[in-house]
Amino acid sequence: PDEPEVAGLLALLLLTESRRPARTAPDGTIVLLPDQDRTLWNRELIATGQAIVRACLRRNRPGPYQIQAAIAAVHSDAPTAVDTDWGQILTLYDQLTAVAPTAVVALNRAVAVAEVYGPAAGLAEIDRLELPAYHLFHATRADLLVRLGRTDEAAVEYERALELASNAAERVFLAGRLSSVR
């Protein structure tokens, strides 16, 4: 009970579970975070997760799970996707990078950079990463290329993401994205 990372993991699990009903459509297709029906989110789990995050912050012994939980808490706090405090999320990703400097953390941080500073800035961050066998690297890169109007390049990235993805729902989602840019 006195280990902040255990509490952080619990908060992360609760906040992740709180969004489960909105993550897929009735037909099983993926619903991205900005498109989720937030009325389906479990507010009781969110309140519990956020309370644990606040308790972790008071201990001032940040670790990867606590920071990830704080990021999830910021997302869960926004009443709509456009209300998301991306500046705060970017600050938290900077902290996460300091304690867990992985390429996947850097990829997620690049998404926050794109939201704060625009897709070109996010793409510049992504282009510094080496994740050639990670489907979400290519999918994220494709999304930013679409936002920049570079659909031919985006199609190549969606194709690569589709080749690498093993999850059936992700494959359906990526095939739809690929179709939309062709």
Class computed from helices, strands and strand pairing: mainly alpha
How many DSSP E strands?
A: 0
Strand content: under 5%
Discrete helix count:
9
| Average pLDDT number | 96
> How would a textbook summarize the main sheet?
none
Uncertain segments: none
Radius of gyration: 17 Å
Shape: globular
How far apart the termini lie comes to 53 Å
Per-chain topology:
Layout: H1 4-18, H2 43-59, H3 64-77, H4 86-99, H5 103-117, H6 119-126, H7 135-147, H8 151-164, H9 168-181
Structural summary, described in words:
It contains nine helices and no strands. The chain has helices at residues 4-18, 43-59, 64-77, 86-99, 103-117, 119-126, 135-147, 151-164, 168-181. Helix 6 (119-126) runs antiparallel to helix 7 (135-147).
Give the tags.
single chain, mainly alpha, 9 helices, globular
Q: Nutshell version of this structure?
A:
The chain is an all-alpha fold.
